[in-house]
Amino acid sequence: MVCRANIFTIFLFYVAMAGALGDTGFVQTRQAMISTKEQIDLSREQSLRLRYRVLGDYLPLSPCPERVRIKVVEEAQARFPTIQRDVVMFPLILGHLGLAGAGNFGLDEKFLVYREYQRLNAVQLEPLGDRITFTIVPPAEPNCAELHHYPGSGSIDVNGNIISPVGRAIFGVSGGSTSPPGPASSQSTLSNPELRVSLQQHFGELVECEPKRKGQVERSAELHRYEAIRQDARTFQAILLYLGLAESAELSEVGKLQVVREYYKLARIQLEPLAHKFQFKMLVRDRKNRSKSSDLFNIDGLIDSRGAVTELKRTVVWYSPCFK
User: What are 284's strand-pairing partners?
Assistant: First the structure.
C-alpha cells in the first residue's frame, strides 16, 4: 500500500509540473535534461573528430614566411614528445595526415604533426542544446596554422554536419565532399618548377581544368600568356624539357599553346616548404587504380629537393573538379 501511495504521489507531481509549465515547457525541460546528458557524454575523441569536421578535409597550402617557419620547426621539435604521448589526439593526427604507418619522424613530419595540433586546439567547442557551437581562435605566434579563411564562429551537430555559417568561406567539407583546390594562379612565375615537373612525371595525368579556348580572342589571350611565361626562364625551361621541345627553336603556335596548358597544370599543384622537404597537394586522374565511381584523386604527400616523392594520402574525388 505504501509503495502504491508513493507511485501515486509521483504521478500527481508530474501532472502538476505539466500544468504549471504547459506541454511545451515540460517537453523543453525533458529535452534540456537529455541535452545535458549528451554534453557530459561527448568524449574527447568525439570532440577532436568534430573539430576536424569544422576544419575540413582539404585545407589549401599557404606557405609560411621563412622566418616564421624556422621558429615553428623549432617549436615542433620541442613539443613533439608531449604530443606523441597523447593517446587520443596523436593517432587521429597521424591518420588525418596519412602518417599512421610512419616509424620514424623527421623534422618535416614533426612540423606537420605540430601544425595539426595547433589547428585542432584553435577550434573550441561548446555544447548548446541539440547542437555544438564552435569558435576558432588562431594560435599564438609563431604559427603556420593557415586559418585566416575560416569564420570566427558557427555551429555543428553531433554527427558532424555544419549548421552555420551558411555559405562559409571555408576550404573544407561541403555536403560531405572534399572541396577542390583553387584555380591556377594568374601569376606566371611558379615556385620550384622542377619539383612540380617531377610530381607530374611521378603521377602522370594531372587534371586539365583550364577551359578549352575557342575563337581568336581566347587564342590571342593564351599566346599573350605564353609570352609572360617565357619571361620566367626557370619555369619556361622546365616545361620545355618536360615536353621535349628545343629551347632555341621558335615554337609554332601549337607548341606555344602546349607550353601554356602545361603551365596551367603545374600551377594547380600546391607546394609548401617545410623543414627540409616540401608538402604537396594535387589533383590527378588515375585510370589504372580508379575506384568504382571515379578515377580522380586528391594526393597529399612529401617531395624532397632531389625529387623523391612520398605519397601520404589519396582521397577519391566525386565532384567535377574544374571551375565553370
Answer: 206, 297
Whose grid coordinates read 596548358? Answer: 261
| Distance of alpha carbon 200 from alpha carbon 187, whole angstroms | 20
Residue 32 has pLDDT above 60, yes or no: no
Residue 155, strand partner residues: 133, 164
CB under 8 Å to 83, separation ≥6 — which residues?
89, 90, 93, 113, 114, 117
CB 53 within 8 A of CB 176: no
179-213 burial: b if 16+ Cβ within 10 Å, else e: bbbeebeeebebebbebbbbbbebbeebbebbeeb
Higher pLDDT, 164 or 229: 229
Nearest Cα neighbor of 179 from 284, 285, 56, 51 is: 56
- Report which residue type is found at 278: F
Rounded CA-CA distance 165/42 in Å is 22
Strands 296-303 and 173-174, bridge-based pairing? unpaired
**Which SS3 state, helix, strand or coil, does residue 76 take?**
helix
The amino acid at residue 180 is: P
pTM: predicted TM-score of the whole model, two decimal places: 0.75
Query: Who contacts 79 (Cβ-Cβ below 8 Å, separation ≥6)?
Result: 114, 117
CB proximity list for 109: less than 8 A, separation 6 or greater: 99, 102
